[in-house]
């Protein structure tokens, strides 16, 4: 049950209510953005909620079961912190959101809590975006614990991996072959596939600070999984980390780290179901 002040409850029960919706976005870098459907800015809880008329929440679905609660928000891209560049750069990925209502004529009455959760999948189209909001029950849908697998479950360079990524990273400069999701560095002499599934981080240029994964690396040519938010240019400086395909052979020969391999190489495959006595 939602707890609200008696004053706010009486106001909502009246014939004429002056309720507006407010929402707070907290990006993964800690920046907080506050918006309201009111036509004027509202100062509430040490934040200034800027007016926006493009906030369109869908119907909220909540149940008393363990099903995932659903809510989607539709809004226009604007210069008030909701830019396509920041969304494509991943600054809002897994960010926090809190939605509530207040009486704009008397903010001392408190707020009516609506929903809080995490930002899910973004959809961009024609200067608009739609984002799914995942509630607390989303956490109950996640697998807790490890699952047996012939592939490694650890993240390269993570706590269970123990690979020193400084030994498998290099600085580079884009020298040509620039496309929407690709570039070339003629100084790269590593074997083909060395940076497949690796991570590239731009240090200088329009995409400084942006990170993305490498789809493939061949003869100094990088093809990325995602197109950076800004066009890449010759002379941009980047830092690239070698990639891991999760196979035991790569762990042993490429990273010399088989003692920390987090997979089970001897797990029987599905073909073992047919290897019963008398088959051969």
Automatic annotation (TrEMBL):
Residues 193-271 form the Bacteriophage phiJL001 Gp84 C-terminal domain. InterPro entries: Phage_phiJL001_Gp84, Phage_phiJL001_Gp84_C. This is Gene Transfer Agent FAD/FMN-containing dehydrogenase.
